[in-house]
Amino acid sequence: MAATVATEWVLGVALVALLGYLVYEEVNVPVTTGGALARGRLCDYYAAGAVFEPVPAALARGIRLLEVHVYSDEDDQPMVATKPVSEGYDIAYDNVSFESVCIDLVNDAFPSRDPCILSIVLHTDKTTAIDRVADHLTSIARRHLITGTELVDYPIDQLADKLVIVSGGPINGTKLESLTNISWSGSYARRLTYQQALYPRDPEELSAFNKNGITLVAADNGFSPSTVHPHTPVNYGCQWNFFIKGPGGFLPKSATRK
Fold this sequence. Notes:
The structure is a single chain. The protein has 258 residues and is an alpha/beta fold. The chain folds into 2 domains: 2-30; 40-253, Phosphatidylinositol (PI) phosphodiesterase (TIM Barrel). Helix content is 31%, strand content 21%. It contains 8 helices and 14 strands. It has helices at 2-28, 55-60, 98-108, 127-140, 175-179, 194-198, 203-209, 231-235, and strands at residues 32-33, 36-37, 45-48, 50-51, 65-72, 78-81, 95-97, 116-122, 163-167, 182-183, 189-193, 214-218, 240-241, 251-252. The strands form 3 sheets. Strands 4, 5, 6, 7, 8, 9 and 10 form a 7-stranded mixed beta sheet that branches. The protein has a 5-stranded mixed beta sheet with strand order 11-12-13-3-14. A hairpin with a 5-residue loop joins strand 5 and strand 6 (78-81).
């Protein structure tokens, strides 16, 4: 009789343990998508960017964050500068067409489980040229565009195969305004120069902002790479960095914590 009671007690303890394990697994195992662990929000990832670099070359080394500096030619066609242009000029004489950039993006950036982020910096306020930027995007990259604004906290897995448009400045009232998914003129994204990110006015505020917002850090005109301290803006949580030639793809913030 005692042996029977002991056996039932052991089985009961085992059953309780098994139920506890199953409950733990249900609560704590990360959600999966297609057999892979689901990832976090767009703002939870760092990315090194490419600027003034041929799009195919940047994409070939895994870069998913691109910035183009758009000027207008004499016929109000949008052109992308291939090297920095002094402030005050409306035309970049060393350039490629924005149309060709869109074609390269569609041919080389997709398919991919990651989004491709395209930051468009406008150096013209000509509405015709800016509208043509939007026209090229909708005619060439339509199936990769995504509707919605301020996608900084959007799950990155739901942005697979998408082209996320980031811009600011003179886009109000243009066709590009409705295509812009993240605006650094808004409340959820910022565009800082490297020096601004290196010496922020309020470091604690910048770190707090980057928990749910995104900061894009651009190289200063004429700065020397030898003076760059890449970890400083990263330590403030600045996610998108164009001042260093880092690895491609998106790196979770948790992977860089010490």
